[in-house]
Amino acid sequence: xxxxxxxxxxxxxxxxxxxxxxxxxxxxxxxxxxxxxxxxxxxxxxxxxxxxxxxxxxxxxxxxxxxxxxxxxxxxxxxxxxxxxxxxxxxxxxxxxxxxxxxxxxxxxxxxxxxxxxxxxxxxxxxxxxxxxxxxxxxxxxxxxxxxxxxxxxxxxxxxxxxxxxxxxxxxxxxxxxxxxxxxxxxxxxxxxxxxxxxxxxxxx
Amino acid sequence: xxxxxxxxxxxxxxxxxxxxxxxxxxxxxxxxxxxxxxxxxxxxxxxxxxxxxxxxxxxxxxxxxxxxxxxxxxxxxxxxxxxxxxxxxxxxxxxxxxxxxxxxxxxxxxxxxxxxxxxxxxxxxxxxxxxxxxxxxxxxxxxxxxxxxxxxxxxxxxxxxxxxxxxxxxxxxxxxxxxxxxxxxxxxxxxxxxxxxxxxxxxxxxxxxxxxxxxxxxxxxxxxxxxxxxxxxxxxxxxxxxxxxxxxxxx
Lengths: 205, 251
Prior knowledge:
Number of helices of chain B: 9
Number of strands of chain A: 13
Strand content of chain B: 25-35%
Shape of chain A: globular
Strand order of the largest sheet of chain A: 2-1-3-4-13-12-11-8
Distance between the termini of chain B: 11 Å
Structural class of chain B: alpha/beta
Radius of gyration of chain B: 17 Å
CATH architecture of chain A: 3-Layer(aba) Sandwich
CATH superfamily of chain B: Aldolase class I
Oligomer: heterodimer
Structural class of chain A: alpha/beta
Number of domains of chain A: 1
Distance between the termini of chain A: 13 Å
Number of helices of chain A: 6
Radius of gyration of chain A: 16 Å
C-alpha cells in the first residue's frame, strides 16, 4: 500500500485520484502506524517552504518518516514543495529541510522577459537512465509535465540529478538518491505522462 | 522551453455548460462532466470553470459538481464563481482544484486575495478582470457579470491584484466574448506589460490563427477560449475540439 502523507499541505485529492487511476492501493494518512506499514510514501506539498516544513514538524511525523525513508529505505516520492523539502535548506526561508538529499533550493533570478513563477507545461530531459523514467524518455515527442514554482532544486552532487528542464536556463526538474525521488512538477496533473510516472513508481521494486 | 498555454474556459449555469455572447444570452451547450471527459482525452493544457451566476445569486460554489469535475481532471483546473471567504477556498482546494479565480470578492475587499495566497501560495490564486471599452475609447473594469462599471482602469486594477498577491491575471474582454472576432490585442498588451505575473487572455478567439497571432503580437502567457472549442461551423453546432499546436514561450 502507498501512503500519501497527509500533514495538511498539498493537493492530496488529485494525487489519490491519479493513484486510483493507475490501479494502486493508496490512502492519505497522518498516522504513524500507517506510515510504518506502508510499502511506499508520497510527500505532497504546495506553498511556501517554511510554512510547509513547520506544518510537517508540527504533525510530529518527521521522526517516523526519517526512520522509514533513511533506515528502512522505503521508496518516497516528493512532489513540488514536497520535493524541495527533501533538501537541506531553501532561499525562500530559514527552516532547515529534511536533509535526505544534499541540495539547496534556490530562486529563479529575475530576468527580463522571464515571468516568475515558472508556470505551465515544459518538456523534460533525462540526466540519467532509471526505471522510474520507463516510457517517458527517448521518445520522438518529449514528455511534458505541468510546473508551478519560483524556486528549484540545486543538488550538490550531479549524480542526484534525474531530470532537467529549460526555462531560459537549464534547471533540475527531478532528483534521485537511492530510494528518494523528488519531482518539481505535478505528475498528478500531467495527463498520460504523470500516469506513466506514477505507474513506474508503483511498480518500482 | 515552457509552452504557451491554451485553455478551454467553460461556463456553468445551474448544472449545465453554457456559452454567452458579450456576457449575455447564455446558450446551453452540454453536460459539464461529459465535456470535461472529452477535454481530458484531448490532453488540454488546463481548464477554467466559471460559475457565472453564483456571485449574482449570492450563493456558494456548487461543491458537489466541482468535486465530480475535479475527479475527472488529470490536468490543472481553475474554478471561479461565488468564492467570498477563505473557508470557501479551503473547501475547493480540498476537492482537488489547483487554482481559484477571484473577481467580485476582490472588488469588494482585496484582503481575500492575501488571505488565500498566504495559506496556499500565490500560484493558487487567479485575479479575474472583466473589461469593457467605454464610449470614449478607454477601458474600464466591470463588476457583477459585466453589468456595473467600476470606473477602474484594467492596468491599475491588475497591478492592485498583483500587489495583493495573485499569481496570475485572467483578463476578459466583455466586448469580444462569444463574438469570435479576434482578441483585443491593445487591451491585452497594456495589461501584460504592466504586471510581472502571467496573464491569461480571454474573449474573441474565432480561429486557431487568432491564438497564434496573439502569441506573436503580445507576450501573453496563455489564452483561454470558449466558443472556439465548443462550436463548429457558422451555425455554431456544438462540437468539442482542441487544437494541437505547440508554441514555445519564447522571449
